[in-house]
Design goal:
This protein has 352 residues and is of the alpha+beta class. It has eight helices and 20 strands. A six-stranded mixed sheet has the order 6-7-8-3-9-10, sandwiched between helices. Strands 13-12-11-14-20 form a five-stranded antiparallel sheet. A five-stranded antiparallel sheet has the order 15-19-16-17-18, with no helix packed on it. The two termini are 38 Å apart.
Length: 352
């Protein structure tokens, strides 16, 4: 039996269905992210787990305890909100201690637990500081410490890094993962940031239109998406419409009149959708090319170059690692190749 079990969770607001028949298991100590675009139902799902929204149907079971009739304040969950919700008139130590005071924990025990959790988030030296005198990353860690100090069975994170700038967000991803692993707390996070979900999570649950459409380890979801939506949502990809037909068993396809080879597939013959990641495309000599084209856009990303190449297949994104030398220029003709197994064949009804 899983530590957290969400069974058939459904939430309707009048005629609108925000979440429909959502089921998910989370093991003890696991970090799972609910990922999807705005309006997909991920925050509503988190609110039902927290007890802020009552499900239309379905159940939330935590450690074999059905929480359906348990008010939010009695569920004993740690929650970090997008805005952190710190008390501006309280010091760091007082903010972190607040939940323990509300539970009538003895003063000495409060002091011990606050000191322990501030050490965990590396803020012991700032215990007397006020939130207004702290950086965004420090305030985020205070909010995390306040959620952890009550020793929750489950930690809920609602877009916890969205208010940070890009560089600080990357740093805090590593910090958040470290804290979660050291605390050993089971964590459910809501995010629309694909990179954040993949960097932090043991498993990612992708949502669309209130439905769970795929859940697996980040690598598995990225490499083997079940649909065109997931392929496009998780990172950059080249989307190609193609026709899968009868061939010699090598899995040949026809795309814009060009025959391509792919790994054997059990997809039925007919229209299909192809996904080809930009980082899987190599620039090669003409004799080894599968297709050639002209560079129409070039973007320098620091550690990588991103090209858009006009080819007979359509415009293809190509990503190359920065090797410290200037790459091909706008207007250059380049020759492209990839391995057959790097073409992912997906159902045609998922075309973007």
């Amino acid at each position: 039996m899983a530590f957290l079990e969400l069974r058939g969770l459904t939430k309707r607001f009048g005629a609108i269905s925000a979440v429909e028949d959502f089921s998910l298991d989370v093991e003890r100590g696991e970090f799972v992210s609910l990922l999807g675009p705005s309006g997909c139902g991920k925050t509503t799902t988190l609110q039902m787990v927290a007890g802020f929204e009552r499900p239309t149907s379905g159940s939330v079971v935590l450690d074999e305890r059905d929480l359906s009739a348990v008010p939010a304040r009695h569920r004993g969950l740690g929650i970090v909100f997008q805005t952190y919700a710190l008390f501006p008139h309280m010091t760091v130590a007082d903010n972190v201690s607040f939940g323990l005071e509300m539970r009538n924990v003895a003063r000495e025990d409060r002091r011990r637990r606050v000191a322990k959790v501030l050490d965990l988030v590396h803020l012991s030296h700032l215990e007397d500081r006020y939130p207004r005198a702290m950086s965004g990353g420090q305030r985020q860690r205070v909010a995390l410490a306040r959620a952890l100090v009550i020793e929750p069975q489950l930690l809920l994170l609602d877009e916890p890094l969205s208010n940070l700038d890009a560089k600080l967000r990357e740093e805090m991803q590593l910090e958040l993962r470290r804290i979660q692993q050291e605390a050993g707390v089971t964590t459910l996070m809501v995010t629309h940031d694909q990179a954040e979900a993949m960097a932090l999570s043991d498993r990612v649950a992708v949502m669309k239109g209130g439905h769970l459409i795929q859940e697996a380890a980040p690598f598995e979801v990225y490499e083997n998406p079940r649909s065109a939506f997931i392929s496009n949502f998780l990172g950059k990809t080249n989307s190609l419409a193609a026709e899968l037909g009868v061939d010699d068993g090598t899995g040949a396809l026809c795309c814009n009149g060009i025959r391509l080879k792919t790994a054997p597939s059990d997809h039925p013959q007919g229209p299909v959708y192809l996904s080809l990641r930009p980082e899987r495309i190599e620039m090669v000599v003409a004799a080894d090319a599968l297709v050639s084209g002209t560079i129409i856009e070039r973007v320098f990303l620091g550690n990588q170059w991103l090209f858009r190449v006009d080819t007979p297949l359509g415009a293809l994104l190509v990503m190359r690692r920065n090797r410290g030398v200037r790459e091909a220029e706008l207007g250059d003709v380049v020759h492209l190749a990839w391995l057959p197994q790097d073409l992912r064949i997906l159902p045609a009804e998922g075309r973007a």
